């Protein structure tokens, strides 16, 4: 019995040590402390088809959100990291109004890129985001909707 308990304790300690030493594994353990409503500000609400994962293969590194403020007619896009947050990695948030040039916030951010706000009442928009990991391969996770929609 003592030998079994000792073995369990040793295996558990080894697993904790591996996870603590490798941030690539611990990055998925929790989520970022921000919401798209909080980042975009008062009056912004999620819209239909307004959330897409930032994916690299089967891994999800975060989400890009499209928000709308009915009172002001502004759209807002924010990319919120759920992996590798607290570490500054290249992250983007892009909002495009049909017929206009894309507006992007890009840089090395710890938690999110954005908010990107554009007045688009009665116009169609597309949105896109990306982020990179901190491992040696610097995989890029992307997502969003490149087709125009939410024409409100």
UniProtKB/TrEMBL annotation:
Signal sequence, renumbered to the chain: 1-29
Source taxon at top rank: Bacteria
Signal in keyword set: yes
Keywords annotated in UniProt: Signal
Keyword Signal: yes
Protein name: Spore-associated protein A
Organism name: Microbispora cellulosiformans
């Amino acid at each position: 019995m003592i030998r079994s308990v000792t073995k369990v304790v040793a295996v558990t300690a080894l697993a904790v040590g591996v996870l603590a030493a490798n941030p690539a594994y611990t990055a998925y353990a929790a989520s970022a402390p921000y919401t798209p409503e909080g980042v975009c500000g008062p009056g912004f609400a999620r819209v239909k088809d307004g959330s897409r994962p930032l994916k690299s293969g089967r891994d999800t590194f975060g989400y890009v959100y499209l928000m709308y403020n009915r009172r002001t007619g502004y759209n807002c896009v924010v990319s919120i990291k759920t992996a590798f947050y607290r570490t500054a990695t290249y992250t983007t948030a892009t909002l495009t109004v049909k017929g206009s040039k894309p507006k992007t916030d890009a840089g090395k951010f710890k938690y999110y890129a954005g908010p990107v706000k554009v007045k688009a009442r009665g116009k169609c928009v597309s949105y896109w985001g990306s982020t990179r990991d901190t491992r040696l391969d610097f995989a890029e996770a992307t997502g969003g909707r490149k087709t125009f929609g939410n024409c409100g």
